[in-house]
């Protein structure tokens, strides 16, 4: 594969490089991808069986399968957001950014993805206010603006899923291949299979439970790498030693555009461009991804905004702490004989493929580090891919099958079509990743192009659930003309900046910013201008009338199924751990004024967070040309460690605290059944 030279900002001769030497046997790669994958699938199937038999929720209901009965609490939604937004690209590209730009890289990566999640809390509140019965954001578009707009945004949603799935498999398989030598095509096809198994049988709630288990592993491995790099490693072992090694790296391989070529400064011209690209990519990846809308729809109305607030805060620590740890470790240890490409640095192709993190893990922990990174990347791929499989199944079943093929489709048909869609897409994911591989598209290329192709749809999608004056003409003109202008800016920018239009140059950060910013701003301005020429006065009654397909099925049929001749209680006993007042409070509908207050709170929170992580902290250090002292670098690292520990607390412990009564009720019912079985046998 040719070198794309996406990250060749360091002043180093890249004409010499070595092959990345795998640390593990191929059998380890197959063992993780197949063995661990099906082990987790088996665990998820068992949990789904327990849920179906000992709670009031069953994945046989279409509402439960696609939207988890709209009852998921904020802690689990927060965990799901962190897990689903932690792609393989999150771990690999944030490390690559640190390796290439220094401390600014992972900060901008985190900022570029977290503020959109926080802002999505506002959109989620509007969904609960104006379209609580919707299953996809495309249903809202169809009801409000008709078939043409619906088809346009089905296209955008499909492109988003393709980019996300491509990023997941291309990045994940590249890591598996680099660490184990496993055949990369085999990895493309084997990775989605185990995921599809438990998604087919468990639906959206199974993905939430899987997200929680994956998040435990994710944070545990992040903690291991952090303690190893800054505490026990013979190669680094302390923050001060890391600072010394980075200072030497700035002499040996200075970063072009960084103050004094340093890796410990926010004054990074390339890092700032990367940050702008990350922001655009983040907006596109959040607001155009049905997976995020799915979580907003699935969450309980009282906790939707809280979940996205915590999710944005918690996720920020993942790329910041992980990328800073492994990315900077890779740069600091580049001259270490244990480095996989020693005595040469990573090539531009290896860097763009996301191999900085595997290189650092190999030096810091040897084979153990390789296994740990292999496992955490595998978890990232499976968790995010499960969200995409559910998203695709919802689009196919509700927006294609039920809308254009069988408008009177029952809940059982929707579930069946969802199963078919999941299986078909799992196979197509492998085919799609293979196509990308054959045409030499790698993780870095996909990351930058995501913002380019999807930015024109962001503002029109937001305004669909937000702005009553939005018109059909405004929506279509903004999303289509904005895309055309964005494409023109992409080509012209690439030509002017790089001198030629080709695949490598189209994914340069500068080209990505030109196109993404043009598409985002022009689409928004055109949408608003055309709408205001002849504004609508939509009351959202049509979108509020979108009905849940079988909302009562989840309770009524389940209640009949689990009430027994042997004196077993109905499924409402699942709530026996709750006092009646608590249960009534949970089930009570939320009035419009309450949701409006939630929306305003989300607006204040997301605005404050955006100002802090984009303006208040990084820009003064950028314009002052400040290079971190050793003491300030120690403070910076300490903040990242504290933040990632708090994130783990929110994501792992909060779901248990919120749902311990329900879990206790399930265990109690399970124990009662086992006691009855043993008594009958005796």
TrEMBL record:
TM region positions: 28-50, 148-170, 182-201, 208-230, 271-288, 308-330, 371-396, 417-439, 445-466, 473-492, 512-533, 602-623, 635-657
Topology in the lipid bilayer: Multi-pass membrane protein
GO MF annotation list: urea transmembrane transporter activity
Subcellular location: Membrane
CDD domains per the UniProt record, alphabetical: SLC5sbd_DUR3
Pfam families hit by this protein: SSF
GO cellular component: plasma membrane
Positions of the UniProt region annotated as Disordered: 554-575
Chief location of this protein within or outside the cell: membrane
Keyword terms of this UniProt record: Membrane, Transmembrane, Transmembrane helix
UniProt similarity note: Belongs to the sodium:solute symporter (SSF) (TC 2.A.21) family.
The protein's name in its UniProt record: Solute symporter family transporter
């Amino acid at each position: 594969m040719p070198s794309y030279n996406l990250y060749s900002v360091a002043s180093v001769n890249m004409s010499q490089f070595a092959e990345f030497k795998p640390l593990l046997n191929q059998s380890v790669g197959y063992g993780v991808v197949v063995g661990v994958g099906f082990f987790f699938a088996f665990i998820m199937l068992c949990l789904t069986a327990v849920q179906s038999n000992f709670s009031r929720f069953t994945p046989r209901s279409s509402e439960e399968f696609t939207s988890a009965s709209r009852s998921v609490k904020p802690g689990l939604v927060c965990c799901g957001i962190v897990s689903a937004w932690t792609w393989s690209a999150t771990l690999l590209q944030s490390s690559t950014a640190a390796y290439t730009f220094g401390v600014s890289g992972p900060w901008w990566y985190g900022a570029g993805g977290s503020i959109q999640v926080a802002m999505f809390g506002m959109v989620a509140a509007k969904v609960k206010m104006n379209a609580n019965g919707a299953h996809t954001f495309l249903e809202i578009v169809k009801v409000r603006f008709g078939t043409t707009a619906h088809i346009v945004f089905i296209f955008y949603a499909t492109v988003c899923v393709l980019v996300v799935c491509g990023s997941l498999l291309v990045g994940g398989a590249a890591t598996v291949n680099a660490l184990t030598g496993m055949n990369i095509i085999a990895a493309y096809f084997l990775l989605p299979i185990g995921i599809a198994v438990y998604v087919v049988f468990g639906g959206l709630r199974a993905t939430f439970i899987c997200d929680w288990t994956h998040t435990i592993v994710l944070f545990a491995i992040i903690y291991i790498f952090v303690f190893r790099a800054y505490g026990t490693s013979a190669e680094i072992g302390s923050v001060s030693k890391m600072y010394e090694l980075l200072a030497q790296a700035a002499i040996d391989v200075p970063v072009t555009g960084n103050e004094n070529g340093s890796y410990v400064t926010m004054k990074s011209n390339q890092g700032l461009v990367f940050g702008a690209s990350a922001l655009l990519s983040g907006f596109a990846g959040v607001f155009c991804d049905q997976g995020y809308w799915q979580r907003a729809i699935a969450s309980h109305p009282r906790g939707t905004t809280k979940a996205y607030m915590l999710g944005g805060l918690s996720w920020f620590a993942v790329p910041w702490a992980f990328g800073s740890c492994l990315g900077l470790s890779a740069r600091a240890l580049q001259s270490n004989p244990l480095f996989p490409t020693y005595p040469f640095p990573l090539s531009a192709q290896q860097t763009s493929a996301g191999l900085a993190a595997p290189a650092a893990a190999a030096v810091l922990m040897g084979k153990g580090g390789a296994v740990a990174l292999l496992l955490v990347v595998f978890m990232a791929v499976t968790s995010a891919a499960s969200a995409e499989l559910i998203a695709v199944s919802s689009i196919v079943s509700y927006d294609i099958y039920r809308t254009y093929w069988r408008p009177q489709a029952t809940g059982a048909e929707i579930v069946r079509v969802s199963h078919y869609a999941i299986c078909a897409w799992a196979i197509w994911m492998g085919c799609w990743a293979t196509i990308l591989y054959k045409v030499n598209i790698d993780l870095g290329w996909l990351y930058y192009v995501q913002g380019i192709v999807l930015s024109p749809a962001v503002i029109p999608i937001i305004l669909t659930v937000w702005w009553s004056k939005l018109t059909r003409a405004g929506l279509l003109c903004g999303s289509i003309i904005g895309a055309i202008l964005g494409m023109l800016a992409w080509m012209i920018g690439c030509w002017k900046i790089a001198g030629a239009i080709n695949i490598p140059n189209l994914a340069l950060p500068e080209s990505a910013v030109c196109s993404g910013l043009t598409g985002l701003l022009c689409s928004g301005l055109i949408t608003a201008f055309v709408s205001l020429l002849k504004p609508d006065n939509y009351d959202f009654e049509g979108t509020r009338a979108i009905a849940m397909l079988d909302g009562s099925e989840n309770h009524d049929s389940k209640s009949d199924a689990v009430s027994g001749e042997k004196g077993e209680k109905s499924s409402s006993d699942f709530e026996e751990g709750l006092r009646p007042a608590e249960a009534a409070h949970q089930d009570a509908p939320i009035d419009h004024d309450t949701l409006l207050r939630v929306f305003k709170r989300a607006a204040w929170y997301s605005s404050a967070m955006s100002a802090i992580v984009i303006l208040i902290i990084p820009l003064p250090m950028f314009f002052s040309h400040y290079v971190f002292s050793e003491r300030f670098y120690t403070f910076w690292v300490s903040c990242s460690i504290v933040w990632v520990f708090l994130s783990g607390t929110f994501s792992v412990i909060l779901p248990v605290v919120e749902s311990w009564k329900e879990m206790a009720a399930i265990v109690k019912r399970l124990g009662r059944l086992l006691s009855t079985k043993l008594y009958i046998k005796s």
